[in-house]
């Protein structure tokens, strides 16, 4: 098994982290949360000789799923996730975009399959447990690779902050339960990438994040 690598392409005015997770040896991987600027994502894939096996979605907000359908059609791969509780959001991405005045390239998203708590998704030899972590969005999921001591947490947790809960479907109490009952128990040494800004480790956030201390 080759090393798990992660590349971040920051896209759209939302400054969202589109992540490409891939095996350092085989160059096979997945795109997580293609929020937009699909041409830039495709260029990175081509320039680095990557083979994308699927698109994974953490949740149904426009800045994370707005470009998923265009990328699916360009690459000929399936869209997997999030949890089906975000299906209504994904069906209204174009309406979301209109409210933000940023309709360019945004399409409603129809995943090929939704995910549930405890499922495992993978590419090559890299396996990720699916954790359903509502709060920021009802259907938000986190992808956790135990072997690599790595998680992609989307917009649940950030360096020094936590996900917004003032958007439709947000629930602050549920968000804090997701963090404290599902993420932090995984261990202080787990490194994570998030949907915006730099990543961190769970232990650092447990000790220093003002929302958790």
Largest sheet: 6 strands, mixed
Q: Count structural domains.
A: 1
The CATH architecture would be 4-Layer Sandwich
| Helix amount | 10-25%
> Structural class, judged by helices and strands?
alpha+beta
What series of H and E elements makes up the topology? EEEHEHHEHHEEEEEEHEEH
| CATH C-level class | Alpha Beta
Mean pLDDT: 96
- The total strand number stands at 13
Stretches where pLDDT falls below 50 for ≥5 residues? none
Beta-strand residue fraction: 25-35%
CATH superfamily: Ribonuclease Z/Hydroxyacylglutathione hydrolase-like
In the CATH scheme, what's the topology name? Metallo-beta-lactamase, Chain A
Q: What is the terminal-to-terminal distance? A: 37 Å
* Rg, Cα atoms, Å: 16 Å
Number of H- or I-type helical stretches? 7
- Biggest sheet strand order reads 6-7-8-9-12-13
Shape: globular
Describe this structure in words.
With 213 residues, this protein is of the alpha+beta class. The chain has one domain: 4-Layer Sandwich (Metallo-beta-lactamase, Chain A), CATH 3.60.15.10. Helices cover 25% and strands 27% of the residues. The chain has seven helices and 13 strands. The chain has helices spanning 38-47, 62-65, 68-75, 87-90, 93-100, 172-183, 202-208; strands spanning 4-11, 16-23, 28-32, 51-56, 78-80, 120-123, 126-132, 141-145, 150-152, 157-158, 161-162, 191-193, 200-201. The chain is globular and about 45 Å long. The mean pLDDT is 96.
């Amino acid at each position: 098994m080759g090393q798990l690598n992660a590349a971040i392409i920051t896209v759209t005015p939302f400054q969202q982290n589109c992540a490409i997770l891939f095996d350092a040896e085989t160059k096979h991987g997945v795109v997580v949360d293609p929020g937009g600027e699909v041409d830039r994502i495709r260029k990175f894939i081509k320039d680095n000789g990557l083979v994308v096996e699927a698109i994974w979605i953490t949740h149904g907000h426009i800045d994370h799923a707005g470009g998923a359908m265009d990328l699916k059609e360009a690459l000929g791969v399936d869209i997997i996730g999030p949890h089906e509780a975000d299906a209504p959001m994904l069906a209204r991405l174009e309406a979301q975009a209109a409210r933000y005045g940023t309709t360019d390239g945004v399409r409603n998203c129809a995943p090929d399959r939704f995910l549930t708590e405890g499922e495992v998704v993978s590419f090559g030899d890299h396996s990720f447990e699916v954790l359903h972590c509502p709060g920021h969005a009802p259907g938000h999921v986190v992808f956790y690779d135990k072997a690599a001591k790595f998680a992609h947490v989307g917009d649940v947790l950030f360096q020094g902050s936590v996900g917004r809960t003032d958007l439709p479907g947000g629930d602050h109490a549920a968000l804090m339960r997701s963090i404290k009952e599902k993420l932090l128990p995984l261990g202080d040494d787990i490194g994570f990438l998030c949907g915006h800004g730099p990543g961190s480790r769970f232990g650092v956030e447990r000790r220093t994040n003002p929302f958790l201390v």
